[in-house]
Design brief:
Rossmann fold, 5-stranded parallel sheet, about 150 residues, alpha/beta, globular
Length: about 150
């Protein structure tokens, strides 16, 4: 199973940015932990990060044909990334939206997601483990043909 692991704007600054909200692990550390976790589950992750919505869409269009699912933290695109939302739909793949912080306990604008209606689920507030839960869900769901 191949899972696309997508990190949106500003997530390249993890480990340095607002540690009280996002923790102290860097994006590279998180990707490494997740690749190890996925490997133990028999899955492969293809990580990608960009601060540009267009680059993320290009990545989805290029890679989705050989993938089985998508784990995405859209970052700020969560709230206004309609072209990203359309690209996710166009892949035809199951999508799990993740967030490191609990977006529902933060500022009002962070609570609205344009991605959530096209995702099979949303996991937030578990720190970097939100990603791990999403990977585990996709792997177990494929084995059980849930989605």
């Amino acid at each position: 199973m191949k899972i696309l692991l997508i990190h949106g704007p500003n997530l390249n600054a993890l480990g340095k940015r607002s540690r009280e909200i996002y923790g102290n692990k860097s994006l590279e550390e998180i990707n490494g932990l997740l690749q190890q976790h996925a490997g133990e589950l028999g899955a492969n992750l293809t990580p990608f990060q960009s601060n540009s919505e267009g680059d993320i869409i290009d990545f989805l269009q290029k890679e989705s044909g050989s993938a089985n699912g998508i784990v995405i933290n859209p970052g700020a695109l969560t709230h206004y990334g309609y072209s990203l939302r359309d690209a996710l739909v166009d892949t035809g793949l199951p999508v799990v939206e993740v967030h490191i912080s609990n977006i529902h306990a933060r500022e009002g604008f962070r609570r609205e997601s344009v991605v959530a209606p096209v995702a099979i689920g949303q996991i937030c507030g578990l720190g970097w483990r939100s990603y791990a839960a999403a990977v585990r869900f996709l792997v177990s769901s494929e084995k059980q043909d849930v989605y």
